[in-house]
Design a protein that fits this description.
Helices cover about 25% and strands about 25% of the residues. It is an alpha/beta fold. It catalyses: N-acetyl-L-aspartate + H2O = L-aspartate + acetate; an N-acyl-L-aspartate + H2O = a carboxylate + L-aspartate.
Length: about 325
């Protein structure tokens, strides 16, 4: 007899992706370690597969070779006819979809954890793509509680025009893990330890769920993307102002109308416009200069999940 609201199928297949961006080294380092010795990620009755997603970019220690692997998992790319002319990452996306998908099918992996680093001061961040998933909200609640008092933030990228086709989106439950600040091409022991703990708690949650533990209703605070903000630019399209010192490293902190946002070379401050408080994330992220994004504005909200348990029990 199942007493919980949402009885879900047990989780059978989990993948941990490292090197989706080849210069974000924590995931690369951990996945390579787990490929040699995966004892710490094994759980009874669960298949856990560590995987290097973009080996060429990892070898070159660059974000990508031809295009961003974390943006090409939509049908327009996955459905392209295979040819030598295709960008390397598009061909790689098709291979990954074949191995871990196909996307939106019964055969796809249950969960993919995609490991990333950011140069922004975002600490431990979980990326959520679906605000209606009781299972993911419960998992994120478990990870946040297990990490406490270390803060862990949840970034909700559910947006009609700003969401993108992530590498992990081929799984039934995609989970992005973002830990920073860490420069590109660098490893930091503290950041590595935090990411490792996030994966440990996530796998413990899955194990407990599969074993029949019921998780009561819960709520989590999330930061939902509302808008991406570009740097001020001159007529040539070059950056004309930089992130203000008072905004630098202030990810997740409230940013009020009138607060300093940018600083011009001649010392002029450009404040936040509008009439409501926002919460900035990915502040001054190195990889987003090419995407013309100085930071993203988010709104803080609460998501609730019903109680869940495995349908096996």
């Amino acid at each position: 007899m199942i007493s919980c609201h949402a009885a879900e199928d047990p989780i059978k297949k989990v993948a941990i992706f490292g090197g989706t961006h080849g210069n974000e080294l924590t995931g690369v380092f951990l996945v390579k370690h787990w490929l040699e010795n995966g004892t710490e990620i094994q759980r009874t009755g669960l298949e856990v597969k560590p995987f290097i997603t973009n080996p060429r970019a990892v070898k070159e220690c660059t974000r990508y070779i031809d295009c961003d692997l974390n943006r090409v998992f939509g049908p327009e790319y996955l459905g392209k006819k295979i040819s030598e002319d295709l960008p390397y990452e598009v061909r790689r996306a098709q291979e990954i979809n074949h191995l871990f998908g196909p996307k939106d099918s019964e055969d796809s992996y249950d969960i993919i954890f995609d490991l990333h680093n950011t140069t922004s001061n975002m600490g431990c961040t979980l990326i959520l793509e679906d605000s209606r998933s009781d299972f993911l909200i419960q998992m994120f609640h478990y990870i946040k509680t297990s990490l406490a008092p270390l803060p862990c933030y949840v970034y909700l990228i559910e947006h009609p025009s700003l969401r993108y086709a992530t590498t992990r989106s081929i799984a039934k439950y995609p989970v992005g893990i973002e830990v920073g600040p860490q420069p590109q091409g660098v490893l930091r022991a503290d950041i590595l330890d935090q990411m490792r703990k996030m994966i440990k708690h996530a796998l413990d949650f899955i194990h407990n769920f599969n074993e029949g533990k019921e998780f009561p209703p819960c709520a989590i605070e999330v930061y939902k993307i509302m808008e991406k903000v570009d740097y001020p630019r001159n007529e040539s399209g070059e950056i004309a102002a930089i992130i203000h010192p008072k905004l630098q490293d202030q990810d997740w902190k409230p940013l009020h109308p009138g607060d300093p946002v940018f600083l011009t070379p001649d010392g002029k401050t450009i404040p936040l416009g509008g009439d409501h408080t926002v919460y900035p994330v990915f502040v001054n992220e190195a990889a987003y200069y090419e995407k013309k994004e100085a930071f993203a504005k988010t709104a803080k909200l609460t998501l609730n999940a019903k109680s869940i348990c495995s349908s096996l029990h």
